[in-house]
């Protein structure tokens, strides 16, 4: 059965020292809980990965990179490969975030390469999809999201597709304080799952965790996560402080 996951995406925030202090604070807070009903993942900047993994040790917190190269290795100045990320002990990589698509020109074609390399190196891609405001206003959200999934992921075998975590992040909800309503989230998540059923069948679709992202916080997480097709969250701003992140984990 699919897992519930609460993943933080720190984006370009936190110096190394600030990041490790946050990891420490989260470890303490999680140790305080009798039971945590979801997997917790921290998407840190590249330079934090080694130390974050070492600090977490055998604790049940996963570490994610926020991007990887679309090439195996070689003369690509400034890039970080999936193999390098895996060598740090990180287990996840966030791919296809709308900020990478918008500001760094990532396309479905490059993302398709990144997903293959991430999987080949044993990383779990947390693959982001979602429509911009104009697309929502012209009722194109389903067409957009379906084509993002088809173009980047549907060449995968069912076995490989089963290893992916999806994150539905309506771009108009990211960092805006304007969350999708619980009904809008469920509607899109159900649509995404149906799209997977049509391609890979019900068993694969039922096993895929689909996270919601976009202004998810302590006050709306419980309602969002109560939906049958919402399996957790990809959290930006509210993952940067332990007092804001823990209530989202506790929402499960
Ligand atoms: O982009 C996001 C997570 O990847 C969501 O960001 P916010 O939670 O800050 O809206």
Describe this structure in words.
- This protein has helices at about 15-30, 50-55, 80-85, 100-105, 110-120, 135, 140-155, 160, 180-200, 200-205, 220-225, 240-250; strands at about 5-10, 40-45, 60-65, 90-95, 125-130, 165-170, 210-215, 230-235.
- It is of the alpha/beta class and about 250 residues long.
- The protein has a single domain (about 5-250), classed as Aldolase class I (TIM Barrel).
- An 8-stranded parallel beta barrel has the order 1-2-3-4-5-6-7-8, surrounded by 5 helices.
- The radius of gyration is 17 Å and the shape is globular.
- The mean pLDDT is about 95.
- The structure holds 1,3-dihydroxyacetonephosphate (13P).
- 1,3-dihydroxyacetonephosphate (13P) binds near residues 169 and 234.
CATH homologous superfamily (4th level) name: Aldolase class I
| Order of SSEs | EHEHEHEHHEHHHEHHEHEH
Kindly, what is the distance between the CA atoms of the first and last residues, rounded to a whole number of angstroms?
A: 16 Å
Tally of separate helices: 12
Tags for this entry?
8-stranded parallel beta barrel; TIM Barrel; binds 1,3-dihydroxyacetonephosphate; 252 residues; alpha/beta; single chain; globular; 15% strand
Write the layout of secondary structure elements.
Layout: E1 5-9, H1 16-31, E2 39-43, H2 49-56, E3 61-65, H3 82-87, E4 92-95, H4 98-103, H5 108-120, E5 124-129, H6 133-137, H7 141-153, H8 158-161, E6 165-168, H9 182-200, H10 202-207, E7 210-213, H11 221-225, E8 232-235, H12 242-249
Parallel strand pairs: 1-2, 1-8, 2-3, 3-4, 4-5, 5-6, 6-7, 7-8
The structure holds 1,3-dihydroxyacetonephosphate.
1,3-dihydroxyacetonephosphate (13P) binds at residues 9, 97, 169, 174-175, 213-216, 234-238.
């Amino acid at each position: 059965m699919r897992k519930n996951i609460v993943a933080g995406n720190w984006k370009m925030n936190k110096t190394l020292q600030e990041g490790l202090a946050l990891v420490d604070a989260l470890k303490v807070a999680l140790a305080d809980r009798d039971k945590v009903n979801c997997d917790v993942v921290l998407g840190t900047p590249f330079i934090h990965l080694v130390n974050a993994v070492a600090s977490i040790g055998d604790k049940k917190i996963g570490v994610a990179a926020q991007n990887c190269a679309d090439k195996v290795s070689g003369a690509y100045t400034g890039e970080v490969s999936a193999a390098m990320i895996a060598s740090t002990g990180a287990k996840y990589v966030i791919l296809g975030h709308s900020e990478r698509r918008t500001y760094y020109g990532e396309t479905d074609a490059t993302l398709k390469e990144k997903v293959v390399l991430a999987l080949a190196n044993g990383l779990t891609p947390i693959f982001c999809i979602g429509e911009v405001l104009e697309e929502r206003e012209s009722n194109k959200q389903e067409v957009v999201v379906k084509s993002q999934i088809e173009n980047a992921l549907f060449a995968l075998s069912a076995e490989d597709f089963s290893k992916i975590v999806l994150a539905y992040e309506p771009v108009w909800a990211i960092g805006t304080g304007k969350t999708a309503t619980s009904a809008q989230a469920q509607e899109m998540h159900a649509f995404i799952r149906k799209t997977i059923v049509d391609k890979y069948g019900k068993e694969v679709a039922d096993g895929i965790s689909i996270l919601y992202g976009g202004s998810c916080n302590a006050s709306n997480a419980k309602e969002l996560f109560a939906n049958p097709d919402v399996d957790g969250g990809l959290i930006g701003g509210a993952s940067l402080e332990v007092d804001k992140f823990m209530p989202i984990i506790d929402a499960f």
